[in-house]
Amino acid sequence: xxxxxxxLKDIEERLAGLSGWSLDGDRLARSYRLAxxxxxxxxxxxxxxxxxxxxxxxxxxxxYNTIALTVNTHSVGGAVTxxxxxxxxxxxxxxxxxxAH
Length: 101
Known about the structure:
Elements lengths: L7 H8 L6 E3 L2 E7 L3 H18 L4 E4 L3 E6 L10 H13 L7
Antiparallel strand pairs: 1-2, 2-4, 3-4
Helix pairs in contact: 2-3
């Protein structure tokens, strides 16, 4: 099944179910603050594993105790698709407390 860009209305409805995620231009975006640099680094490794499993990758930035992600689907011209929401949900499942900021 081909991946199709989502309409803005669909994106907004799906975002309502993902605390902390937002639409930043043409990308889904989320940042996390963790207890330490080690915790943030460990989360990055887990996110990388999920991205490999899904064969769908975000831009991922590691700070001292923060992580920032942005994602869209390059194969459809950089639009937001269901693949991006699948990745966002999996990342939320990894987050301490399922949605720590």
